[in-house]
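From the methods appendix. Each design record in this collection lists the tokenized structure first, followed by the designed amino acid sequence. Records were kept in a plain field format so they could be parsed without special tools. The example shown here is representative of the layout used throughout.

RECORD:
FOLD TOKENS (156 positions):
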């Protein structure tokens, strides 16, 4: 009896082991499927996050494009204003016999920030109180100096 009983226990254990193996393999498959679903969910959330970032970047690009257009228009207007000043200065130079020898484009090319600073410093040291208000820059245009130069073009 003990043999049959051992065999019955052994047979029951084998059946139990077999059922546990089946359950284990089913659980492993479910676990694999669950892991796969989790990975897909994670990938979908990453794609959604990336889509949001792409939309934000597109908006940022549009904003930067508008700013660039504004800067280009501003630079164009500034260039036009600067060019208009150059033309007016050149006309004033050409109209003034005392200054007609000045080459405006050369002066603009040679002008530097150091030169501007040194002229500003010299202005600070110049005593304007001794300046006679009767003589203005307009006087040179309306009442040109009576000196005669050797160049017939500059003679009055």
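DESIGN:
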């Amino acid at each position: 009896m003990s043999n049959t009983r051992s065999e019955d226990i052994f047979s029951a254990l084998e059946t139990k082991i077999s059922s546990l193996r089946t359950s284990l393999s089913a659980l492993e498959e479910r676990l694999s499927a669950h892991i796969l679903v989790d990975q897909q969910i994670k990938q979908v959330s990453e794609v959604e996050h990336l889509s949001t970032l792409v939309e934000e970047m597109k908006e940022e690009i549009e904003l930067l494009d508008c700013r660039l257009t504004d800067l280009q228009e501003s630079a164009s207007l500034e260039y036009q204003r600067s060019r208009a000043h150059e033309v007016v200065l050149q006309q004033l130079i050409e109209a003034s016999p005392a200054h007609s020898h000045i080459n405006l484009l050369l002066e603009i090319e040679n002008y530097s920030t150091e030169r501007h600073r040194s002229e500003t410093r010299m202005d600070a040291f110049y005593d304007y109180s001794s300046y006679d208000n009767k003589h203005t820059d307009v006087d040179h245009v309306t009442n040109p100096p009576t000196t005669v130069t050797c160049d017939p073009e500059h003679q009055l």
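APPENDIX NOTE: The helical segments are 2-95, 104-110, 113-125, 137-142.
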